[in-house]
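Page 37, continued from 36.
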């Protein structure tokens, strides 16, 4: 299922999108006959607009393929049925169009094509880039060009909508788009259906011509590229329970959808519903009666209570509601007395959904309230089982976190920002590549971040984003992310196409290496590393004044990953230079930042700040090796005097543990995640309480580490052509695991015996590998392997 039929009316109709389809040959090398259209005078300010065109067909076609796009967003209908929603988020130089076969919804005789297009103007989500309000429809061949815009298309402005900035009572950065208000009396009900009378609608305004990206003469600011992503999920998600209400009107059966309730005239009541876990969904409410009533939906990850004597709020246990209030974004619907179904234009994030109903002179009946869950349609094939039930719970919560942070792009958090940050996205991509066979969103992210590059050579920290932001270490993690993909998917041509971008990033950093110390000097922009309280806005000591060993070692990791890719796919001389540069930085950090009294590496040569972070990276990047590395990492884990890594950077702690041979300690390092379970979270938070975001992509790293560190499944060669299995069961007696592989599924069934770890390892056809545990070394062949 795609998302819904109308901005308001729910029709659960399958959509026959053709994700990844290509243009017909006649459209590939020329400007399209269709042109962009808009409502006259619409411009780029806020507005919701409808477009219609009637088409007569002599017979029902077997195929009727079109290409469609809009700005900011569109939904396309055929005879009342939703057939396409988009465009998938991108930038103006890569503006997505979808390819759709309309034939299943067409009939012999009269047909109507209808679209709603909305532009949130200055209140648009930060992730929404835009040119101006527009809509485009192009038939794939001359047989389908009868539906092209603009000929025969009419337009209407829907003045029932208004918007507002989300309430600032959360005192936080919220850039997900506006709150929506809809007056049902001004809405053109039935506008998308065949029998609607559009005689009063106006002619459209014709805009620029359209063409695929790469034409010699660009006809518009929209450089069109094919959308290769699948339709997002759109499935019913019932709320779990009525948590509380100001008057006893809604029964316990209301969330199930079969127990309407009526609010009398001249009342103001609230009903708080609990989803039971966090979700991303379109809330859908059906009402009857109640002319002039206002119905407000407010969405919250958790409820809040004021801290006594302090000017702040806290969440506490997310399951507790006593003495707490709902604070957050909302939508408002003004009723017209008829039976209506309302749904906001964009999906929302919530665990708690509070409905406030203010009636006027008529009672209103709330027939139903539910959610239609939406996210990227990943189909996980991986699994992880142990005798400890806490791991199953963590797996469930982690995968939910990863799902809610993946839609048309990856995103840091679904409630506050919905932005594709590289730091989060690298971890998200690893989870996707290990748990699913679908790598389309990973490639999409790699390409979008590459397209964000500024003239200096750095990528932006997040993209798509209307407001540029630069976090230089995230440019380094983009290189690491490309190398992750290089190791886990056999796609040399794609990786090679992005190597020029890696060179620009590295050049920027190389130009900032201090010739005296051998490590990085002062760095511009925001050099975020992690969220410990001791960092200034996430930045450690040394990034502004120069001498940051942390960022210098992040550069080492990027240099080595880039060298690996250059050696195999690009410039071997450049690879050698990168390795030499990395070795030089390592030598400089060892010489200038080691403190023999504390037996730790310091953050800078001044040795006034000591963190887990720099010592994690020293272990990970071979500043120290062998038994000394193992001892350093053990001390860094245990020493409370060090500035501690929070959820985000503990992914790199796990990687260092695995490299140092300390993977058996990983399961005992998950205290922050167990604390979140105890506090009632159903997704992983951005950092320890007090916290803004209850759902943050980077904190889902245990789903990857369960498979890569505990089960020990990692690529041994690029493209995952061979596998290294090096399990770390810790105190576990057994484990079972599955990992997605380009050629199938890797399966482990292992247990501890007196002689060590034994069991079976099953590899896909054509894949070989190596099993290592203790002193045991076993070569693995395709198929089932017994490890004894």
């Amino acid at each position: 299922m795609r998302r819904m039929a109308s901005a308001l009316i729910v029709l659960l109709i399958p959509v026959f999108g053709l994700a990844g389809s290509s243009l017909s040959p006649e459209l590939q090398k020329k400007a399209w006959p269709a042109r962009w259209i808009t409502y006259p005078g619409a411009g780029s300010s806020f507005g919701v607009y409808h477009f219609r065109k009637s088409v007569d067909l002599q017979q029902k076609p077997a195929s009727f393929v079109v290409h469609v796009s809009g700005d900011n967003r569109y939904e396309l209908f055929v005879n009342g049925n939703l057939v396409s929603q988009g465009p998938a988020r991108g930038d103006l130089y890569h503006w997505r169009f979808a390819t759709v076969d309309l034939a299943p919804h067409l009939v012999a005789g009269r047909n109507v094509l209808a679209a709603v297009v909305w532009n949130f103007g200055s209140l648009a989500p930060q992730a929404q880039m835009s040119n101006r309000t527009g809509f485009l429809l192009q038939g794939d061949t001359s047989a389908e060009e009868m539906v092209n815009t603009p000929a025969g298309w009419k337009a209407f402005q829907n003045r029932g909508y208004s918007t507002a900035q989300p309430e600032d009572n959360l005192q936080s950065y919220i850039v997900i788009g506006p709150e929506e208000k809809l007056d049902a009396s001004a809405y053109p009900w039935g506008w998308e259906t065949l029998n609607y009378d559009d005689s009063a609608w106006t002619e459209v305004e014709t805009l620029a011509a359209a063409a695929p990206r790469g034409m010699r003469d660009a006809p518009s600011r929209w450089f069109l590229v094919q959308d290769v992503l699948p339709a997002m999920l759109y499935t019913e998600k019932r709320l779990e329970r009525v948590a509380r209400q100001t008057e006893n009107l809604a029964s316990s059966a209301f969330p199930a959808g079969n127990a309407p309730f009526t609010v009398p005239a001249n009342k103001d009541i609230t009903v708080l519903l609990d989803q039971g876990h966090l979700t991303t969904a379109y809330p859908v409410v059906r009402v009857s009666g109640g002319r002039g009533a206002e119905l407000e939906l407010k969405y919250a990850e958790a409820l809040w209570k004021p801290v006594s004597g302090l000017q702040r709020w806290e969440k506490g246990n997310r399951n507790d509601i006593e003495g707490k209030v709902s604070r957050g974004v909302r939508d408002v619907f003004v009723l017209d007395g008829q039976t209506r179904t309302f749904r906001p234009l964009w999906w929302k994030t919530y665990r708690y959904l509070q409905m406030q109903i203010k009636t006027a002179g008529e009672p209103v009946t709330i027939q139903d309230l539910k959610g239609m869950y939406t996210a990227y349609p990943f189909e996980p094939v991986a699994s992880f089982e142990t005798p400890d039930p806490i791991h199953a719970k963590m797996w469930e919560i982690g995968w939910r976190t990863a799902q809610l942070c993946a839609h048309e792009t990856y995103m840091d958090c679904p409630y506050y920002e919905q932005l594709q940050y590289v730091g989060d996205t690298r971890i998200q991509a690893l989870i996707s590549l290990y748990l699913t066979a679908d790598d389309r969103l990973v490639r999409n992210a790699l390409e979008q971040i590459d397209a964000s590059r500024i003239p200096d050579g750095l990528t932006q920290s997040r993209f798509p984003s209307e407001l540029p932001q630069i976090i230089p270490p995230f440019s380094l993690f983009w290189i690491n992310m490309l190398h992750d993909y290089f190791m886990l998917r056999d796609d040399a041509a794609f990786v090679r196409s992005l190597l020029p971008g890696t060179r620009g990033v590295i050049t920027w950093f190389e130009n900032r290496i201090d010739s005296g110390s051998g490590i990085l000097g002062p760095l511009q922009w925001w050099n975020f590393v992690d969220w410990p309280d001791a960092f200034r806005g996430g930045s450690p000591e040394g990034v502004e004044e120069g001498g940051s060993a942390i960022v210098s070692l992040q550069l080492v990791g990027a240099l080595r990953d880039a060298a690996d890719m250059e050696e195999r796919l690009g410039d071997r001389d450049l690879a050698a230079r990168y390795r030499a540069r990395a070795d030089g930085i390592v030598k400089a950090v060892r010489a200038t930042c080691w403190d023999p009294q504390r037996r730790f590496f310091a953050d800078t040569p001044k040795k006034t700040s000591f963190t887990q972070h720099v010592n994690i990276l020293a272990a990970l990047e071979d500043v120290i090796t062998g038994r000394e590395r193992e001892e350093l990492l053990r001390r860094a884990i245990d020493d409370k005097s060090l500035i501690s890594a929070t959820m985000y950077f503990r992914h790199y702690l796990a990687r260092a543990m695995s490299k140092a041979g300390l993977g058996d300690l990983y399961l005992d390092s998950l205290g922050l995640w167990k604390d979140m379970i105890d506090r009632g979270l159903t997704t992983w938070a951005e950092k320890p309480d007090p916290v803004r975001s209850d759902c943050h992509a980077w904190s889902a790293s245990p789903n990857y580490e369960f498979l890569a560190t505990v089960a020990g499944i990692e690529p041994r060669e690029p493209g995952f052509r061979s596998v290294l299995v090096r399990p770390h069961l810790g105190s576990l007696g057994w484990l079972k695991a599955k990992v997605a592989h380009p050629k199938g599924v890797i399966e482990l069934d292992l247990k501890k015996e007196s002689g060590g770890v034994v069991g079976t390892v099953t590899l896909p056809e054509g894949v070989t590998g190596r099993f290592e545990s203790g002193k045991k070394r076993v070569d693995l062949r395709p198929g089932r392997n017994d490890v004894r």
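Residues 235-373 form a domain with the Jelly Rolls fold (CATH 2.60.120.260). Flag for discussion at group meeting. The longest helix spans residues 572-593.
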